[in-house]
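Render this sequence as a predicted structure.
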Amino acid sequence: MANIATSNLFLALAGGIFPALFWLWFWLREDRLNPEPKKTILKAFLAGMLAVIPAFFAEHLALVIFENNQTALISSWAFIEEVSKFILIYLLVMRNKEFNEPIDAVIYMITGALGFAAVENFLFVINADTVFISLITTGMRFIGATLLHIVSSAAIGVMIAFSFYKRKVVKIEYAILGVITASLLHAIFNLLIIKNAGVSLFLVFSFVWLLIIVLLLVFEKIKRLTKVNSTFYKKLDI
């Protein structure tokens, strides 16, 4: 029994952490010309992991409130998770001096999202009944739910990035819009998966991959925005 428990724990850790680390490596390569300090990346990843705690308790409260309304429950869970990730990442990372250019917001939000996804994946895999189900769960979350966390949280980072050089009130408005967008994307994905809504998993996952392509294009736009504004302020000697 001890060997089985150890095996399940190993599979859960592997299924939770390794996929998240792979995607983290992928996205950090997009910022390899001006990388963030490893300490800051680690802090963002841990912030995402810690966000699971308030999300867990808030989701249980939502379960009591929306017990008889599945759509409202799933939507509230999406909102809770996106808000939890954003608040923890903002408090632990975005108020530091390392947060000094627009692209940082996207990197931090994606990193935090992967920290959150790592814990969530671990919990899903460790509750699987068999090794086969564990492997299937890991694979499905690798190409689906984990990417959904990336896309949804990145939406917040993108909004913060585009408002980086704007007034404080505008930054707040953009951040709120980012949270709303992230929550909608998250809720739509979850509702399609849970209710199926006559849509195959292939189409649902294809939608997420399409969003990843859009995110890559937006990522490049934000990098150019960062470069242009950095050059502008250097010329002003600010």
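Summary. The chain has one domain: 2-235. The radius of gyration is 18 Å.
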